[in-house]
Amino acid sequence: xxxxxxxxxxxxxxxxxxxxxxxxxxxxxxxxxxxxxxxxxxxxxxxxxxxxxxxxxxxxxxxxxxxxxxxxxxxxxxxxxxxxxxxxxxxxxxxxxxxxxxxxxxxxxxxxxxxxxxxxxxxxxxxxxxxxxxxxxxxxxxxxxxxxxxxxxxxxxxxxxxxxxxxxxxxxxxxxxxxxxxxxxxxxxxxxxxxxxxxxxxxxxxxxxxxxxxxxxxxxxxxxxxxxxxxxxxxxxxxxxxxxxxxxxxxxxxxxxxxxxxxxxxxxxxxxxxxxxxxxxxxxxxxxxxxxxxxxxxxxxxxxxxxxxxxxxxxxxxxxxxxxxxxxxxxxxxxxxxxxxxxxxxxxxxxxxxxxxxxxxxxxxxxxxxxxxxxxxxxxxxxxxxxxxxxxxxxxxxxxxxxxxxxxxxxxxxxxxxxxxxxx
Amino acid sequence: xxxxxxxxxxxxxxxxxxxxxxxxxxxxxxxxxxxxxxxxxxxxxxxxxxxxxxxxxxxxxxxxxxxxxxxxxxxxxxxxxxxxxxxxxxxxxxxxxxxxxxxxxxxxxxxxxxxxxxxxxxxxxxxxxxxxxxxxxxxxxxxxxxxxxxxxxxxxxxxxxxxxxxxxxxxxxxxxxxxxxxxxxxxxxxxxxxxxxxxxxxxxxxxxxxxxxxxxxxxxxxxxxxxxxxxxxxxxxxxxxxxxxxxxxxxx
Lengths: 424, 252
Prior knowledge:
heterodimer; B: nine-stranded mixed β-sheet
């Protein structure tokens, strides 16, 4: 796609991170700025220091994917959720591997979705298994981030899932090509913000158009990009307003599709069985035409119970054939960051991990992060201290979403760093 | 004085490579490619020499298929003045052929210094710099960890990383230098420079135009993964260790 775009004259610059929104004196967005590179871990300038650059334009479109760092700021500052459908966004964490399996077991085009085990009745989530070509399969587990048990480790649940007899038999004899993780939107229709702001718009998953029952958001993301492009073209050429994007979105099949599928996910707030029962009714009888729209539960970061009402979960050790430990999996994600740079995961209040996260919630970030970036290590005073291994970060945004006090802020690291997905 | 820097487009150092199922080589399709890290160091050194006033032009050159133009654009964005692309087709070109091409280019460009990375991270050959020096009958300072140029005396003092420590050589220019890791920290190509580099002209040559015949005396028969590491064994006594080393591992 990039080659085609460049042939048409589009300039593409990979390896640079947009870290800041630029405003004019009327609070209108006029562009973005990239971050400084060549800054050492302690903040001092290295000999390779280069100042970031400002990129200005008539229209700025943000397409950062789910929970985009700049998009979230824009949504907050311009109050775009209130101006849209009104509900907060809800999320899930997806952990995925691409395997190369044995010839006889491979059925190209085959699709499998499961729900239930290994998750309990109160945790929404399920798996996907898609047979692609070249004997490759894509397998993953998606867990809603409003899970209550702070001892839950999505990574370990995924490893457990692979041991189910039906899945294990498929994977045996195969090898893992790649590993990765990413948060995805589950808020659907109720959580769509007004994506237009003065000076630009938000497209794709940064706004949130994923169809949850279909577990598919790429098609709506692409369509939203096309609608924004048409609106932007009209702004530049015919003096129209960017609001045209919002209007055309509401008239498009995205709206219709998300409207019809709006009640599936919220129904699971009542538990797995009621959720399944309602989903069956919704799918076969009501078909999205019920005159009511279910609301989401608490925001994901508020849904975590305190650790004392749960017991730690003992996860089985990885067997190295079908299940693996985090370092092995991280190796397969080709993740790399320039080592000597400031930590890109910022704590709004550095005292909160030891004061709140650890005593009240048993340090959930040390469990939900699929890259084990967050570790509580003994300090010299017989206590535990949070240590952030930012170099491991998979850029999944789970921490930005799930941290109970919303204390962790995911910001962009030096451009070019991050996971090296190729077949994902 | 002109400096010629030879760079190579290789699989990015952070990528975990896989062997192709037919064992003919390593999977390179859909894999991130970048400039060889040692070549970046070579280019950085050339730029610093120019910035110190000892040279006035840095020319980047690469041998490879069409996509290698991207590597040259990176070199231009880092600060090279001109770039030359020798398109030798899609098949990998081995060091001896690359050396012959570089010799031909040296005769065209007449540089006072040819700087290369000590080796490429895909084949780890560590041959091209030495072979070019041999073909040109130029002095060579390989594994350079420090380079000081004396413009007036036309001499390069090179500190080399050798097995025993550091060796200092004095080379009369023109000379060939290959760079090692500790020589410098390459600069970032800034966004404005990358934008400007897109419109710079890259001179193209084919091997035929340089009167070089690409033929390979080597054939890659098979590429296999290294054997998987076996689990370690904890022994209970020194005697058991000696016994295992003697009878199982057969290293004593």
